[in-house]
Design a protein that fits this description.
9 strands, 10 helices, Rossmann fold, seven-stranded mixed sheet, two-stranded antiparallel sheet, alpha/beta, HAD-like_hydrolase_sf
């Protein structure tokens, strides 16, 4: 059965719109060294990546690491902001969606202020009607609160919204709020995430444009 036509797109940020994994890796290691100790081996970054999409504080709790790493992590991340890049094809996609009058929003595990700063630095802020960070809701992803806040603020029908992300928390958030979901594959999410049910799997950002006209499209891999 075909999905409803897509009338709005909600994006995750890291791993979906921006290539920031190396910056996150370095900030994580720096925060662990400064708070826990430079002589203590941190849990592998691959373990951190399993929980992407969640807030940093949530991830620290899951990994058994101190919440005091959060401000250090933010400081170290901000110091490396100039090294963040937009994934190939994302700029053209956002411009095309904007030209077609498609509302767009961000739902990210980052805090609101840092999200706005990054989008502004990269020249992407103008495209988004709503930005929801992990500090804007009581229950960040994977809970549906962030997606629900967006549909309420923009007066959208969840069933005609597409939630695009690269992490398990993104898909769970979108599904729990009644949205269609798309797994972004261009930052190479793990096999566990690839196996998780989603409406679509996308190998390139531009494929989202094909979904605006046809809910199912031959060159897009359905879950």
């Amino acid at each position: 059965m075909s999905e409803l036509p897509i009338r709005a797109v909600i994006f995750d940020l890291d791993g979906t719109l921006i290539d920031s994994k190396q910056v996150i890796r370095e900030a994580y290691h720096a925060a662990h060294a400064q708070v826990v100790g430079a002589d203590v081996e941190p849990p592998p970054f691959s373990e951190y990546c399993k929980h992407l999409g969640r807030s940093f504080v949530q991830i620290m709790k899951i990994m058994g690491l101190p919440a005091q790493m959060h401000p250090v992590f933010m400081r170290e991340s901000n110091a490396r902001m100039q090294r963040i890049r937009v994934f190939e094809g994302v700029g053209g996609l956002l411009a095309s969606l904007h030209a077609r009058g498609i509302p767009m929003a961000i739902a990210t595990g980052k805090d609101h202020g840092r999200t706005v700063a990054i989008l502004e630095y990269l020249g992407l802020l103008k495209y988004f009607s709503c930005i929801v960070g992990s500090d804007d809701v009581a229950n960040p992803k994977p809970a549906p609160d962030m997606a629900r806040m967006i549909v309420e603020q923009l007066h959208l029908d969840p069933a005609s919204c597409l939630f695009v992300g690269d992490a398990l928390a993104d898909l769970q958030c979108g599904q729990a709020s009644g949205m269609q979901t798309a797994l972004a594959l261009w930052d190479h999410p793990g096999e566990e995430i690839r196996r998780y049910p989603s409406t679509y799997q996308l190998t390139a950002p531009g494929q989202i444009l094909a979904l605006l006209e046809v809910a199912r499209h031959a060159d897009i891999t359905p879950a």
